[in-house]
C-alpha cells in the first residue's frame, strides 16, 4: 500500500512562505485533509482510457482503521485501480475497469466487510453525439432509439434522420461511448463518435517532445491534477490530447502552460492548438457520389436488358436474332438478359439484402424487404425458366430478368434523389461557430491598471476574466463587459435592430457582433458553451434532431404494406396450387408445358412483383425534387415575420427633410453630409447618400462631398466639425443640449411626429442654431402590405417577432397590417414564441433573414429564409426566397400545398396500380376470361406506375405564382421628401 505524497497545494504553500516572510510562517505546513488516498498501481495510458469512476455513500465509518480496511480489501480486488475514502463525509470514490468488475460486485465487496452501502447517489449525466450511417427511413431511426434505450445507463436518446446524428444522455459510471457504438452496430448500423461532453468547453492540443509512454503518463497526470479538468483523452499515435474543462476554474492557456511546466530537462514538452478536420460534408458528398455511381452502373446493365426484353421483340426483324435457340428452348435473349441482370441483382443491389437482413433481425419489415423479395422472386423464377428451357424441347416460358434489373434501377434513382434533396444542415452550425474572429488582442496590466503588453492570440485561447481590446471594424470574439472606451456595436445578428447600439463602460457586448467605430477594452465574462452564439448553436442542433422528413408517410405505409403483400402472395400460391393438385379446376386451364405448381408460382410471383413499391419509394422524393414543401403536410395557419431585413429593407435611408431656417435644402444637406462623411455609423452613411441623390437631382455633375475640418465624434450623440467658416453639429437632442443649442417647440413637434412613425430624427445645427432635421428610417418593402393582405385571404394569420423596440415594431406592424407583435425578443425568445404557437396545435411558418432568426427558422414547421440574408439563416431554413421578395412567401406556401397534393396524387398512382393489379395478378379474372397477368407483364405494370409517378411530379413544372405585386409607385425615392 503506497501512501500518497503531499499535493501540489502544500508545495506551493512552502514557496509562498519563502516569498512572504514571517506572516506565511504562521500557516501550517500540512493542511487538514478529509481523505486518504491509496494508489494500487500506476496504470498505462490505454488502461486509463478504459477506467470508470463510481461514488458510494458508506455508513458506519468510525475511524482511520475503517478507511484502511476498505481500501486494503478493495485494492486486492481484480479490476479496481484506485480507492479514495473520505471518513468525514462517508463517501468512497473508486476507479475500476468494467471489463473485470461491475458496480454491483464493488457494492457487495464493501457490504461483505460489514459496512452499509446506501442508495447509489445520482451520477453526473454525460452527453455524447454519434454520427450514424445506413439509415434509410424513419423506422431505422426509431429502431436505433429503441436499441439505445434498452442499454443499461442510457437516460435519453434522440436520433435525427435528416442530419444522421444521435444525441445520447447516459450515466458514465455504467457505460461509455464505446458501448453505445456497439449497441448501434448490433442493430445493424454504423456509428462514429462525434463528441463527448460539451464541445464548447473542449480544447484539442497537439503535443511535441513526446518520446515514450512515460511522457504520456506525466502529461496526463499533470493535466488531471489541474482544478476544473473533467476529462483527458490522449491520442498517443497522433501525439494529440483532448481536454474537457470547466471554464470557471481553468482555460486553454492555463492547460498549455501546465503541459510546458510538466517537462523537465532533457524532456521539454510543447503544446499548440489543433483543429480537428470536419468530415461531415466529405461524407455527404461521398454518399451522393455513391448512390449516383450505383444508379449509373445499374442503368448501364439494365438498359440493354430492357431493350432486349421490351423493345427489340416488338420491332421485327431487328429482334429476331434474340429468339435464336442455342440448346433446346434456350435462346440468345435469355442468356444475354441473365448475364446482364446478375451483377445488378447481387452486386449493385447488395445494399437491399443487407438492409433486409438487419430489418428482419430487428423484427420489422421495411421497403428493403419488399424490394429484396420482389427482385429475388423475379430473378430466381427467371433462372428457373432458363433451366427449364434448357432441359425441354417443348417448354414455352417467359423470363422477366428485366423486372428485377429495372426495379433496382428505379429504387436507386429514388435514393439518389433523396440524398440530393437533403439540406446541408450541418453547414448552418459550422457557419455559426465561424462567426467569431480567429484572433483577439489580449491585454496585460500592471498593479496600477496600466497596459504593459498587448498580444494577439487565437480566440480559442481566451479565458474568463481576460481583458481584450476590440478595434473599430473588428468582431467581438466572446461575450463580455466594457471596462474602458466608447463605441457603437452592430448587434443586428442578435437583436435584429438595424441601428448600432452605443456602448460605454459597464455595458455588455456579445460575441460575433461588430464594433463600428471606437476602441473598446472588454473583460471576458462568458466563454465556451455559455456564449450567446453557443446557445444559438445548441438551439439549432436540438431542433434539427427533432425533425422528420416527408418520407415518413411512405415508411408508415410500407410497415403495414410489406407483410400484407407477402401474405397475399403466399395465399395466392396456395389458392392455386392446392386446388390444382386436388383437380378442383379443369386441367385445360394449365398452359402447355406447365403444371399446377408452376401456374400457382407464376400467380404468386406476379402478386409480389406488381406490388413491389418502386413507385411508393419514388412518390415523395420526385415531388420534393421538383418543389420542396417539407412542412406543407402540417397545413400552415400562421406565418411569423421578422422585421429588419424581412418586412423592411434592412438599410436606413433618409425619408423626410424639414428646414427650420433660410438655408437652401441642397446646401443644408451638403453641410450635414460634410460633417458625417468620415463617420462609419449607418445613419451617417444614409445622410451622405441622401446628399448625393440631391446633387444628381439638381443636376450637379460631382458626387464629391467636402470633408469637415476639426471633425469630432460624440459617442452616443453625434458628430461635429467646421464646414467652410460654419460650425456644424449633426446628432440627437442630447448633442444639442450638450453644445448649448436651444431646441424650439417647432423642432420638438417634428421630433415627436417622427418618433410616432418609428423614425430617427437627426438634428442639424449651424453656428449654434437648429437649421433643420432629417428623418431616417428602415423603409417597409413595397410588397409587404399586399402580401399580408393576401395571406389573410388565404385564412393565414400573420405575426411579427422582432428584437427591435416596441415603438418601432408597432409602427411597422400598423403600416403593413399585422395585428399581433412581439418586440424586444432575443433569438431564444423567437424560438420560444414559435414553440408556444405550436403547442396550441398551430402549424407555423417563419420568415427571417438574420443569424438571430436561425433557431426560430429551424423550430418552425416551415422555415423561409430571405435570399439576401445571412448564410446561417439560409442553411437553417427549409425554403430560401432567392429574390428576397416577400411575395415569394405566398408562392412558397401555395407551392407547398400543391406539392403535398401532388405527393398524395403520386401515392394514388403508386398504390392504385397495386390495388387494381394485385387481384388481377392473383388470377381473379382467369377462371372467367382466361386473362392472367404473367410476371413479366406484372413487372411492366410496376414500371408503368413508376413512370406515371415521375410524370405526375413533372407536371409541377407548369406551376404559376398566385400573386405578383407590381408596385404602381415604381422605384421608391425619398430625395424629394421635404
TrEMBL record:
Q: What is its EC number?
A: 7.2.2.8
Its catalytic activity?
Cu(+)(in) + ATP + H2O = Cu(+)(out) + ADP + phosphate + H(+)
Superkingdom per UniProt: Eukaryota
> Could you name the Gene Ontology cellular component terms for this entry?
membrane
Q: Topology relative to the membrane, per the entry?
A: Multi-pass membrane protein
UniProt keywords, alphabetically: ATP-binding, Copper, Ion transport, Membrane, Metal-binding, Nucleotide-binding, Repeat, Translocase, Transmembrane, Transmembrane helix, Transport
Q: Which family does it belong to?
A: Belongs to the cation transport ATPase (P-type) (TC 3.A.3) family. Type IB subfamily.
Which NCBIfam families does the entry link to? Answer: ATPase-IB_hvy (TIGR01525), ATPase_P-type (TIGR01494), copper ion binding protein (TIGR00003)
Put simply, this protein is called P-type Cu(+) transporter
Q: Which organism is it from?
A: Macleaya cordata
